[in-house]
Amino acid sequence: MMSNLFSIFDPSTNLLYMPINWISTFLGIMFLPYSYWLIPNRHYILWNFILNKLHNEFKTLLKNNYFKGSTFIFISMFSFILFNNFLGLFPYIFTSTSHLNLTLSISLPMWLSFMLYGWINNYQHMFTHMIPQGTPSILMPFMVLIETISNIIRPGTLAVRLTANMIAGHLLMTLLSSTGNNLSYLFILLLILIQILLLILETAVAIIQSYVISILSTLYSSEVN
Protein backbone atom coordinates (compact mmCIF):
# COMPACT_ATOMS: atom_id res chain seq x y z
CA MET A 1 0.00 0.00 0.00
CA MET A 2 2.70 2.49 1.05
CA SER A 3 4.90 1.62 -1.93
CA ASN A 4 2.00 2.27 -4.32
CA LEU A 5 1.16 5.49 -2.49
CA PHE A 6 4.63 6.95 -2.91
CA SER A 7 5.16 5.57 -6.43
CA ILE A 8 3.65 8.77 -7.87
CA PHE A 9 6.80 10.58 -6.69
CA ASP A 10 9.21 7.98 -8.11
CA PRO A 11 11.54 9.61 -10.67
CA SER A 12 13.10 6.29 -11.73
CA THR A 13 11.04 5.74 -14.89
CA ASN A 14 13.59 5.43 -17.67
CA LEU A 15 13.96 4.82 -21.38
CA LEU A 16 17.31 3.56 -22.66
CA TYR A 17 18.67 4.10 -19.13
CA MET A 18 17.70 7.77 -19.22
CA PRO A 19 15.38 9.18 -16.48
CA ILE A 20 12.69 10.54 -18.77
CA ASN A 21 10.49 11.71 -15.87
CA TRP A 22 12.73 14.73 -15.34
CA ILE A 23 12.22 15.78 -18.98
CA SER A 24 8.78 17.09 -17.96
CA THR A 25 10.60 19.83 -16.03
CA PHE A 26 11.59 21.45 -19.32
CA LEU A 27 8.28 21.15 -21.15
CA GLY A 28 7.64 24.85 -20.49
CA ILE A 29 10.03 25.66 -23.34
CA MET A 30 7.30 24.47 -25.71
CA PHE A 31 5.21 27.52 -24.74
CA LEU A 32 7.90 30.08 -25.59
CA PRO A 33 6.86 30.43 -29.27
CA TYR A 34 3.55 31.96 -28.11
CA SER A 35 5.44 35.13 -27.18
CA TYR A 36 6.48 35.59 -30.82
CA TRP A 37 3.03 35.48 -32.36
CA LEU A 38 2.15 38.52 -34.43
CA ILE A 39 -1.36 38.60 -32.93
CA PRO A 40 -1.20 37.35 -29.32
CA ASN A 41 -3.99 35.10 -28.12
CA ARG A 42 -6.02 35.66 -24.95
CA HIS A 43 -3.89 33.29 -22.87
CA TYR A 44 -0.72 35.15 -23.72
CA ILE A 45 -2.36 38.51 -22.96
CA LEU A 46 -3.47 37.21 -19.54
CA TRP A 47 -0.01 35.76 -18.83
CA ASN A 48 1.67 38.99 -19.90
CA PHE A 49 -0.64 40.94 -17.57
CA ILE A 50 0.35 38.69 -14.64
CA LEU A 51 4.05 39.07 -15.40
CA ASN A 52 3.76 42.86 -15.58
CA LYS A 53 2.03 42.90 -12.19
CA LEU A 54 4.80 40.75 -10.74
CA HIS A 55 7.46 42.96 -12.29
CA ASN A 56 5.99 46.08 -10.69
CA GLU A 57 5.67 44.37 -7.31
CA PHE A 58 9.19 42.96 -7.36
CA LYS A 59 10.58 46.31 -8.48
CA THR A 60 8.92 47.95 -5.47
CA LEU A 61 10.41 45.38 -3.10
CA LEU A 62 13.84 45.83 -4.67
CA LYS A 63 13.81 49.61 -4.29
CA ASN A 64 17.33 51.08 -3.98
CA ASN A 65 18.74 47.60 -4.44
CA TYR A 66 21.45 46.27 -6.75
CA PHE A 67 19.03 43.61 -8.01
CA LYS A 68 16.35 46.18 -8.91
CA GLY A 69 16.89 45.67 -12.62
CA SER A 70 16.92 41.90 -12.22
CA THR A 71 13.24 41.21 -11.62
CA PHE A 72 13.54 38.88 -14.63
CA ILE A 73 15.31 36.38 -12.35
CA PHE A 74 12.41 36.20 -9.90
CA ILE A 75 9.74 36.27 -12.61
CA SER A 76 11.49 33.36 -14.34
CA MET A 77 11.58 31.49 -11.03
CA PHE A 78 7.86 32.10 -10.55
CA SER A 79 7.06 30.89 -14.07
CA PHE A 80 9.25 27.79 -13.80
CA ILE A 81 7.86 26.70 -10.43
CA LEU A 82 4.26 27.50 -11.39
CA PHE A 83 4.46 25.49 -14.61
CA ASN A 84 5.94 22.44 -12.88
CA ASN A 85 3.40 22.67 -10.05
CA PHE A 86 0.58 22.69 -12.60
CA LEU A 87 2.07 19.76 -14.49
CA GLY A 88 1.81 17.66 -11.36
CA LEU A 89 -1.97 18.15 -11.32
CA PHE A 90 -2.36 16.13 -14.52
CA PRO A 91 -2.60 12.33 -14.30
CA TYR A 92 0.55 10.31 -14.97
CA ILE A 93 2.80 13.39 -15.14
CA PHE A 94 5.77 13.50 -12.80
CA THR A 95 5.82 16.36 -10.25
CA SER A 96 9.44 17.52 -10.22
CA THR A 97 8.83 20.18 -7.55
CA SER A 98 7.96 17.44 -5.06
CA HIS A 99 11.64 16.46 -4.89
CA LEU A 100 14.22 18.24 -2.75
CA ASN A 101 16.95 17.80 -5.34
CA LEU A 102 15.09 20.21 -7.64
CA THR A 103 13.84 22.67 -5.03
CA LEU A 104 17.25 22.83 -3.35
CA SER A 105 18.84 23.33 -6.77
CA ILE A 106 16.69 26.45 -7.09
CA SER A 107 16.92 27.90 -3.59
CA LEU A 108 20.53 27.08 -2.62
CA PRO A 109 22.38 28.78 -5.53
CA MET A 110 20.07 31.80 -5.26
CA TRP A 111 20.67 32.17 -1.51
CA LEU A 112 24.42 31.57 -1.92
CA SER A 113 24.71 34.29 -4.55
CA PHE A 114 22.89 36.75 -2.27
CA MET A 115 25.15 35.92 0.67
CA LEU A 116 28.35 36.18 -1.36
CA TYR A 117 27.32 39.50 -2.85
CA GLY A 118 26.31 40.89 0.54
CA TRP A 119 29.40 39.81 2.46
CA ILE A 120 31.82 40.85 -0.29
CA ASN A 121 30.32 44.23 -1.18
CA ASN A 122 28.33 45.27 1.92
CA TYR A 123 29.86 43.42 4.85
CA GLN A 124 29.17 46.31 7.26
CA HIS A 125 25.48 46.22 6.40
CA MET A 126 25.45 42.44 6.82
CA PHE A 127 27.02 42.73 10.28
CA THR A 128 24.59 45.43 11.41
CA HIS A 129 21.65 43.40 10.08
CA MET A 130 22.49 40.64 12.57
CA ILE A 131 21.78 42.87 15.58
CA PRO A 132 18.39 44.67 15.55
CA GLN A 133 18.43 48.26 16.71
CA GLY A 134 17.89 48.66 20.46
CA THR A 135 19.11 45.16 21.37
CA PRO A 136 20.58 45.05 24.93
CA SER A 137 24.32 44.35 25.06
CA ILE A 138 23.86 41.14 27.01
CA LEU A 139 21.59 39.71 24.28
CA MET A 140 23.79 40.65 21.32
CA PRO A 141 25.72 37.33 21.13
CA PHE A 142 22.44 35.40 21.20
CA MET A 143 20.93 37.63 18.50
CA VAL A 144 23.97 37.10 16.28
CA LEU A 145 23.66 33.34 16.77
CA ILE A 146 19.92 33.35 16.06
CA GLU A 147 20.29 35.54 12.95
CA THR A 148 23.14 33.38 11.67
CA ILE A 149 21.11 30.19 12.07
CA SER A 150 18.04 31.78 10.47
CA ASN A 151 20.14 32.86 7.47
CA ILE A 152 21.74 29.44 7.07
CA ILE A 153 18.45 27.53 7.09
CA ARG A 154 16.73 29.83 4.58
CA PRO A 155 17.43 27.75 1.45
CA GLY A 156 16.34 24.62 3.30
CA THR A 157 13.08 26.17 4.46
CA LEU A 158 12.30 27.41 0.96
CA ALA A 159 12.94 23.98 -0.53
CA VAL A 160 11.09 22.02 2.17
CA ARG A 161 8.10 24.41 2.07
CA LEU A 162 7.60 23.88 -1.65
CA THR A 163 8.25 20.13 -1.54
CA ALA A 164 5.99 19.50 1.46
CA ASN A 165 3.08 21.46 0.00
CA MET A 166 3.33 19.61 -3.31
CA ILE A 167 3.59 16.19 -1.66
CA ALA A 168 0.79 16.69 0.90
CA GLY A 169 -2.02 17.37 -1.55
CA HIS A 170 -0.93 14.66 -3.99
CA LEU A 171 -0.73 12.07 -1.22
CA LEU A 172 -4.19 12.98 0.06
CA MET A 173 -5.75 12.71 -3.40
CA THR A 174 -3.99 9.39 -4.06
CA LEU A 175 -5.03 8.02 -0.68
CA LEU A 176 -8.68 8.95 -1.22
CA SER A 177 -8.78 7.58 -4.76
CA SER A 178 -7.37 4.22 -3.62
CA THR A 179 -10.47 3.63 -1.47
CA GLY A 180 -12.96 3.95 -4.35
CA ASN A 181 -13.09 0.21 -5.13
CA ASN A 182 -14.71 -0.61 -1.80
CA LEU A 183 -17.38 2.10 -1.77
CA SER A 184 -21.00 2.18 -2.88
CA TYR A 185 -22.19 4.35 -5.76
CA LEU A 186 -23.39 7.08 -3.41
CA PHE A 187 -20.06 7.30 -1.64
CA ILE A 188 -18.22 7.19 -4.96
CA LEU A 189 -20.13 10.29 -6.10
CA LEU A 190 -19.23 11.97 -2.80
CA LEU A 191 -15.60 10.92 -3.29
CA ILE A 192 -15.56 12.42 -6.78
CA LEU A 193 -16.93 15.70 -5.40
CA ILE A 194 -14.24 15.73 -2.70
CA GLN A 195 -11.56 15.02 -5.31
CA ILE A 196 -12.75 17.93 -7.44
CA LEU A 197 -12.62 20.25 -4.42
CA LEU A 198 -9.14 18.97 -3.58
CA LEU A 199 -8.04 19.57 -7.17
CA ILE A 200 -9.25 23.17 -6.95
CA LEU A 201 -7.38 23.53 -3.66
CA GLU A 202 -4.23 22.06 -5.19
CA THR A 203 -4.50 24.52 -8.08
CA ALA A 204 -4.60 27.37 -5.60
CA VAL A 205 -1.66 25.88 -3.69
CA ALA A 206 0.35 25.60 -6.92
CA ILE A 207 -0.14 29.32 -7.60
CA ILE A 208 0.36 30.45 -4.01
CA GLN A 209 3.56 28.45 -3.47
CA SER A 210 5.10 29.81 -6.68
CA TYR A 211 4.28 33.33 -5.54
CA VAL A 212 5.53 32.76 -1.98
CA ILE A 213 8.89 31.34 -3.11
CA SER A 214 9.40 34.25 -5.52
CA ILE A 215 8.43 36.88 -2.94
CA LEU A 216 10.65 35.40 -0.24
CA SER A 217 13.60 35.21 -2.64
CA THR A 218 13.01 38.86 -3.54
CA LEU A 219 12.91 39.85 0.13
CA TYR A 220 16.10 37.91 0.85
CA SER A 221 17.86 39.72 -1.97
CA SER A 222 16.69 43.10 -0.65
CA GLU A 223 18.41 42.41 2.70
CA VAL A 224 21.93 42.27 1.24
CA ASN A 225 21.98 45.87 0.04
List the helices and strands and how they pair.
Layout: H1 2-6, E1 14-15, E2 18-19, H2 42-61, H3 71-87, H4 100-121, H5 123-129, H6 140-152, H7 154-177, H8 185-222
Helix pairs in contact: 2-3, 3-8, 4-5, 4-7, 7-8
Describe the protein.
One of its GO terms (cellular component) is mitochondrial inner membrane. GO terms for molecular function: proton-transporting ATP synthase activity, rotational mechanism. It is found in: Membrane; Mitochondrion inner membrane. Pfam families: ATP-synt_A (PF00119). It is a multi-pass membrane protein. This protein is mainly alpha-helical and 225 residues long. It is 65% helix and 2% strand. The protein has eight helices and two strands; from the N terminus they run H-E-E-H-H-H-H-H-H-H. It has helices at residues 2-6, 42-61, 71-87, 100-121, 123-129, 140-152, 154-177, 185-222; strands at 14-15, 18-19. It has a two-stranded antiparallel ribbon. Strand 1 (14-15) and strand 2 (18-19) form a beta hairpin. Helix 2 (42-61) packs across helix 3 (71-87) and helix 7 packs antiparallel against helix 8. The longest helix has 38 residues, at 185-222. The termini are far apart. The model has no long low-confidence stretch (mean pLDDT 79).
Keywords:
mainly alpha; 2% strand; 225 residues; two-stranded antiparallel sheet; globular
The SSE order reads HEEHHHHHHH
Low-confidence segments, ≥5 residues, pLDDT <50?
Answer: none
Strand content: under 5%
What overall form do the CA principal axes indicate? globular
Give the biggest sheet: 2 strands, antiparallel
N-end to C-end Cα span: 51 Å
Q: State the secondary-structure class.
A: mainly alpha
The tally of strands reads 2
